[in-house]
Amino acid sequence: MNVFDIAGRAMSAQLVRLNATASNMANAGAVTGSEKQAYRAIRPIFRTVTESPGISTVKVESVVTTDAKPVRRHDPNHPLADKDGNVWEAAVDSSTELVDMLEASRMYQNNVQVLQTAKSLMLDTVRMGK
């Protein structure tokens, strides 16, 4: 594994994280007629990959649905309301999702910078040899 592999895998993991957050944000506020059908936020699970001592990166192990409970709201006039007049709103905390999106975006940008720095150093090294 070299610096390009490590940063590339990290960027891939952050992209999965950004996609999960985007999905959660897209479904925030969605309403259904039953608790079972209500959208629940998803989160990627990461695993550290170590191929040799001192060198490790990350891998997306899986994407799981959170245990957050949908919010029940009494709205008998809503077309999706159940027989008791209740609807369930998606179990997504928009504030948490925004923070997660910012964090994943910054980590992605950091890895882009790592790749740019490594490329620049390699080019400078090649120029020194000429």
TrEMBL record:
* A GO CC term assigned to this protein in UniProt: bacterial-type flagellum basal body, rod
Q: Which Pfam families match?
A: Flg_bb_rod (PF00460), Flg_bbr_C (PF06429)
Q: Which GO terms describe its biological process?
A: bacterial-type flagellum-dependent cell motility
Decide whether keyword DNA damage is in the record: no
What main location does UniProt list?
A: other
Do the record's keywords include Magnesium? no
Q: Where in the cell is it found?
A: Bacterial flagellum basal body
- Record keywords: Bacterial flagellum, Cell projection, Cilium, Flagellum
User: What are the Flagellar basal body rod protein N-terminal domain coordinates in residue numbering?
Assistant: 5-33
Locate the Flagellar basal-body/hook protein C-terminal domain: which residues?
A: 85-126
Q: Which family does it belong to?
A: Belongs to the flagella basal body rod proteins family.
**Subunit-level organization:** The basal body constitutes a major portion of the flagellar organelle and consists of four rings (L,P,S, and M) mounted on a central rod. The rod consists of about 26 subunits of FlgG in the distal portion, and FlgB, FlgC and FlgF are thought to build up the proximal portion of the rod with about 6 subunits each.
Supply the name of the protein: Flagellar basal-body rod protein FlgC
- Species of origin: Sphingobium fluviale
Upper classification of the organism? Bacteria, Pseudomonadati, Pseudomonadota, Alphaproteobacteria, Sphingomonadales
